[in-house]
Design a protein that fits this description.
78% helix; single chain; transmembrane helix; membrane; Reticulon
């Protein structure tokens, strides 16, 4: 029997503020994310707003307000706008670069396995994933997909935490079925003559 482990969902999501929002332990934060994403989706999808124009207009308004606030503050001896010193630390840039390096190297490894090694299993997996993304994407535009992703992020972890035992039982069953299917597919792929010959030469 496969044991997926019994780690807590909160720890699996990083155990920080983001995990609190996704699991609705911070109900205010979850509500803000849900309402903000719904309003933005409604504005851009149903209201016909353009994202680039919306961002540019809001930045323009903010800059003009801050400029006049700063000028009036110096004339009337009032405090300046409470804007913190915004600076990205070198450490955070290095962490982001390391994360990107891992993902890019993984993509290059997959591309190498397909293009150079001629790995048929990897090719089938990549083609299946890309086809599935293309098929799902044909029903929605990009903004709607992002909105659906936000809704799933705010609901799936919460539901999974509530019904973890029952979901794990179903996942074990799905894992067994998929494992047997992949074993059969692997046996079929081993019967393909040119693939078998290439593996022998390597």
């Amino acid at each position: 029997m496969v044991d997926f482990g019994r780690t807590s969902v909160h720890d699996a999501l990083g155990g920080g503020a983001v995990a609190d929002i996704l699991l609705w332990r911070n109900a205010y934060g979850g509500g803000v994310v849900l309402i903000a994403s719904t309003v933005l989706w409604f504005l851009f999808e149903k209201g016909g707003y353009n994202i680039l124009a919306f961002v540019a207009n809001n930045l323009l308004l903010l800059i003009v307000i801050l400029f006049f606030w700063a000028k009036s503050a110096s004339l009337l001896n009032r405090p300046l706008p409470p804007i913190p010193e915004l600076e990205i630390s070198e450490e955070s840039v290095l962490i982001a670069a390391e994360e990107m390096q891992v993902w890019i190297n993984h993509a290059f490894t997959i591309a190498h396995a397909i293009a150079v090694d001629g790995n048929l299993k990897t090719l089938i997996a990549v083609v299946s994933c890309l086809w599935l993304v293309s098929y799902i994407g044909s029903f929605f535009n990009f903004l709607t997909l992002i909105y659906i992703g936000v809704l799933l992020s705010l609901s799936v972890p919460f539901v999974y935490e509530k019904f973890q035992t029952q979901v794990d039982q179903k996942l074990i069953l799905v894992h067994k079925i998929s494992h047997s299917i992949f074993r059969k597919v692997d046996m079929i792929l081993q019967m393909i003559p040119f693939l078998h010959h290439k593996q022998k030469t390597q």
